[in-house]
Amino acid sequence: MRKPISVIIITKNEEKKLKECLESVKWAEEIVVVDAKSEDNTIKIAREYTDKIFVHEWTGFSNQKNIALSYATNEWILSLDADERVSHELRNRIQDYVLSTTHDFDGFYVKRDNYFLGKKIRGCGWGKDFQIRIFRKSKTTITNRLVHEGFKVDGKVGKIYESLIHLSYSNFNEVIKKINHYSSLEALEKFTKKKSNIFTIIFYPPMYFFQHLILRYGFIDGIYGFFISIMHALTKFLVQIKIWELQRKS
């Protein structure tokens, strides 16, 4: 007998992306959406797929996901972001193996296929992206980070190669907004632990550009790999100057 699964999704003004995400998991027994007071049609779209929609003031990625997890009623959980979609192959793998067979895993790393401006990226480290997204609720906690939070499973973790589709950036305006937002969170998280100075501000960005374009084979994606490498360099530059600014103020 197949075990039930709960899908958890946190949202904030995701009307452009949420429908496809929800459509890809409408087979799940339960879908939980925790919305941070969206000002667009996010909640209206969510209501087409679930009645388990909870509105909470934004308190950070980790806290919002913890809230979503608390509302989930099934032991097995699939965590998604609004810009992610479950492929047909991944759905079949979840239904036919994770939920339908006897195994000793408490969670699974899932391979993500990352897209940038509509193109699937193979280099820049993006082509080897595995994240824990399927897990037993009773065995899992969420790391307490401001950005790049993740799930920690107290038990055996397997690996699934059927892909989760991640449509990370659809235009450059989105790129700039996310870089600015995420770099602020990363700087706030790091400024008491790491020092920023003229050396880190000057040399870290080109180091990260070289790392992603050359060492992580970003060049195999052509102009897209170049843009992504620039994006990582710009993020690192903003993190460093924002850490410097925070240190100066403190």
Overview of this structure, please?
The chain has 7 helices and 11 strands. The protein has helices spanning 18-23, 42-46, 61-71, 88-98, 172-190, 198-215, 223-249; strands at residues 5-11, 30-35, 53-55, 76-80, 84-86, 107-116, 119-120, 129-136, 140-142, 151-153, 157-169. The model has no long low-confidence stretch (mean pLDDT 96).
Brief account:
This protein is of the alpha/beta class and 250 residues long.
Low-confidence blocks of residues: none
| Class computed from helices, strands and strand pairing | alpha/beta
| N-C termini distance | 58 Å
Q: Report the sheet with the most strands, covering strand number, pairing sense and barrel closure.
A: 9 strands, mixed
Domains (count): 2
Q: Note the total helix count.
A: 7
Query: Can you name the CATH architecture of the largest domain?
Result: Alpha-Beta Complex
Report the count of strand segments: 11
Shape: globular
What CATH calls the topology of the largest domain is Spore Coat Polysaccharide Biosynthesis Protein SpsA, Chain A
Report the radius of gyration as a whole number of Å.
19 Å
Spell out the CATH superfamily of the largest domain: Spore Coat Polysaccharide Biosynthesis Protein SpsA, Chain A
Beta-strand content estimate: 25-35%
Q: CATH class of the largest domain, anyone?
A: Alpha Beta
Mean pLDDT: 96
* Helix amount: 25-40%
Helices and strands, in order, run as EHEHEHEEHEEEEEEHHH
Blueprint of the fold:
Blueprint: E1 5-11, H1 18-23, E2 30-35, H2 42-46, E3 53-55, H3 61-71, E4 76-80, E5 84-86, H4 88-98, E6 107-116, E7 119-120, E8 129-136, E9 140-142, E10 151-153, E11 157-169, H5 172-190, H6 198-215, H7 223-249
